[in-house]
Design a protein that fits this description.
Strand 8 (175-182) and strand 9 (187-196) form a beta hairpin. Helices cover 4% and strands 33% of the residues. It is built from three helices and 29 strands. It is mainly beta.
Length: 418
């Protein structure tokens, strides 16, 4: 492992979040944080890993019908279910645009607020998005974005989307909610999901790169959910008991470009979903990453997924390539579990931009070189991420969006790395 400090003018310096608290009784409003302690949010069993194979009960308003490989779940009786023979389409029916500076949001003819800000954003620069009444007017649980990592950019609908839970510690009822930003309308919205109970977002959000379907994995749940734009569907159960806080990533290069969903469990367990069934990957259990608070982050430039972190092996991390081969990387210079770090990726260079919460520093991780660089200088207003935030890499705009939620304050920042 190589570690260096970037001190030249114009290098990146990010201000990190404090470690997030959660269902371990930490008082976030009082300014104390419990994420760095590594204490797990407790389930009814009190264990850090569930081996029962039972998925938690969903809310009473949902209905379920069984298909050949998925279960369709509606969040209200008025919604209609779909069968396993359906073909998921985007709201427009169009394929997504690819590349930086194309598409309706950041193309040359854009009129969106986000797109116009991006056009004037130079490398190594931050910009704060203007105050937005659609965001300030939302009713959000103060703990909604605790223990969060990455959200998703839907390349078909061209929106930012993220699902998280406020935790049973801090909300009653503790309803998981979906937060969406539509740049074309410059509009934020929030909607309830049919899921309730203990848990937060962790690194549990992923998106299908061609359909825009949204995947979400919940606390201690062997069943990953898929949202098709209208309804939630249950994937088949995973082949192992799952930990409290897992990592999820869509890997477009699997199956010769058809793609597949990667699930990073605790203790070095890994599986992927081919659209019909889960299969275990040759695990890293001889030198495993940690037990929970694990992350999985797809890198579209390097054509790989970065996996690791977790309690009790916080600095262990791996590279997963398109042949499903895991390669262990040198231990990180600081803890990588979700409670201690954010893991984003610059969509232009493929360098990971990592927040080290413990000392408010940001780092660049070059996975090809296995090299860490502390970044110390930027221009523009940098966010104070605090205990409640998430980030989204937006490939067609070449930037990373950071959403910050501290009490009644909701702020959104954009960062261009290169």
């Amino acid at each position: 492992m190589r570690v260096k400090v970037m001190t030249m003018a114009g290098a990146l310096s990010l201000v990190s979040a404090a470690a997030c608290g959660g269902d371990n009784g930490t008082n976030q409003d009082a300014g104390t944080t419990g994420g760095s302690s590594g204490a797990p949010e407790t389930s009814s069993s009190g264990d850090a890993t569930s081996n029962s194979g039972d998925a938690p009960t969903t809310s009473s308003s949902e209905t379920t019908t069984t298909s050949s490989s998925e279960t369709t779940t509606t969040s209200s009786p008025e919604e209609t279910t779909t069968s396993s023979s359906e073909t998921t389409m985007s709201s427009s029916g169009e394929t997504s645009d690819t590349g930086v500076g194309v598409g309706p949001v950041c193309g040359p003819d854009t009129t969106s607020v986000l797109g116009q800000l991006v056009q004037n954003l130079t490398p190594k620069t931050w910009v704060k998005m203007p105050e937005n009444t659609s965001l300030t007017g939302l009713t959000l649980d103060y703990s909604l974005a605790y223990y969060a990592d990455s959200g998703v950019w839907d390349p078909v609908r061209h929106v930012v989307r993220w699902v998280g839970g406020p935790g049973a510690c801090c909300a009653d009822p503790a309803i998981y909610r979906m937060l969406t930003y539509d740049p074309a309308k410059d509009e934020w919205s929030v909607s309830d999901t049919p899921f309730t109970g203990t848990g937060h977002a962790y690194d549990g959000n992923a998106v299908h790169s061609t359909t825009g379907d949204h995947y979400f994995t919940r606390y201690y749940d062997k069943v990953v959910r898929r949202w098709d734009g209208s309804n939630w569907h249950d994937l088949p159960a995973l082949p192992f008991g799952v930990s409290a806080a897992q990592g999820l990533a869509w890997f477009p290069s699997l199956q010769g470009g058809a793609g597949g969903l990667v699930f990073a469990n605790g203790n070095g367990q890994l599986a992927w979903f081919d659209g019909t069934q889960w299969a275990s990957v040759s695990d890293a259990q001889t030198e495993p990453w940690g037990t929970y608070h694990v992350f999985a982050e797809h890198n579209p430039v390097l054509n790989a997924v970065w996996i690791g972190g977790g309690n009790q092996a916080e600095r262990v991390h791996y590279r997963l390539d398109s042949t499903l081969t895991l390669t262990r990387l040198d231990d990180a210079p600081f803890d990588l579990r979700v409670s201690d770090s954010f893991h984003s990726v610059d969509p232009v260079t493929g360098k990971f931009i990592v927040t080290k919460r413990a000392d408010d520093s940001f780092w660049e991780f070059d996975m090809d070189q296995d090299e860490w660089t502390q970044i110390t200088d930027t221009s523009g207003p940098k966010p104070l991420l605090g205990a409640s935030a998430f980030h989204v890499s937006i490939p067609e705009c070449g930037v990373i969006l950071y959403f910050v939620h501290n009490g009644d304050t909701r702020e959104v920042f954009l960062y261009r790395h290169e």
